[in-house]
Structure formats: C-alpha cells, structure tokens
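Obj: model holo form, ligand = guanosine-5'-monophosphate.
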Amino acid sequence: MPKYKKIIILTAPSGSGKTSITRYLLEKIPELAFSISAATRKPRGQEKDGKDYYFITEDQFKDHIKNNEFIEWEMVYEGKYYGTLKSELERIWEEGRIPVLDIDVHGGIHVQQEYPINTLSVFIKPPSVEELRRRLQSRGTETPESIETRVNKAAYELSFADQFKHVVINDDLSKACEEAEKIVRDFLDMK
Ligand code: 5GP
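Output (holo structure tokens):
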C-alpha cells in the first residue's frame, strides 16, 4: 500500500461530538471521504450497511484478520469488533480523495504508528466526563449499562489525548467544527 497518501484520523471518547464534526468536515470539504469501517455490532436507528459501517459477522471479521486485510482493528467494546480495511483506504485513494477515519483512540494510535508521515490526527475532547454522560443519555440509543461502559472507557481514553497532533475541545459544536476545518485545510494546504 502506498505510504505517501494522506490520511485524516478523528478520534475521541464516544459522545464527544466526533461524528457531528466528521459529518461537518465531509460536507464542507468535498476532497474528503468517510472511511467506512467493518463492525460486528448490529445497525442502530437509521444506520445502513455500506454507508455507516460494513456490518459483518464475527466469522467474517476473523477471516479479514487472518488474511491480513485490516490496517488496524480493535475489540472496542466487549465482544464487538471494529476495523479499518486496507481495501477501504485504497478505494478512497483511487477516487483521488482523502480518507477520514472516525475511529477509537487505540485504533488512532495504531494508524499513526503505521503511517507516521502524511497522517493528520485530531483528538476531540468533551468538556467533561459529566457532560459526556449527559450527551450519551440524550442520544436515546443507549441502554443505561451501555452508557456506563462508554463513560468509563471515555474517562480512560481522555488520558491519551497528548498522543495526537491536535486537540479540539468540543464545548461549543460550531466553534469546534470551525477549528477542526481550519486544521484539516492547513493539512491539505487549502487555505
Ligand atoms: P459506535 O458503536 O458508537 O458506532 O462506535 C464505537 C467506537 O468505535 C467509536 O469510538 C468509533 O469511532 C470506533 N470505531 C469505529 N470504527 C472503527 C474502526 O475501524 N477501528 C477502531 N479502532 N475503532 C472504530
């Protein structure tokens, strides 16, 4: 796989507003394309296979691991696997675009290690763990147990913020979107 192609990683604890910021960037900058991850969890709400994720079985996921088809993969939550397929990045690069990876903190660290050059990494930080809990509750798609799991994981993940090139604090979504857009445009040399 070519090492010189650009990659943008957006990472954050769940509920930090990373998905909203990712959507904003994809709308504002047409050169970007969302990197669709493979995942073994079930679709939520309006999510669609091949758009939000490639929803696959655990057996299919393990075959991809065995065949060395992932750039990185993680068991992000107990029993639930998520991974970035090499073929997905190739697909986007072949379109002449730049993949945006919305992945967890450990996945973000792995991709940076694998692709230290031409990789932009942005860590989106929630204003506080309490605010994060409130946001997850208001999303209405999580059970109380799932919220607790995500909040505990988030508190731990916050300690890795300094491993990323940029940190954006999301206490005001539109400001955070603008700040992220500026960072991405600088990286792409589009002022
Ligand atoms: P959700 O289940 O809420 O869609 O995602 C849970 C977490 O998994 C989020 O932090 C999301 O960014 C992360 N994630 C999604 N795709 C990938 C991936 O390909 N690799 C890794 N390491 N994490 C991912």
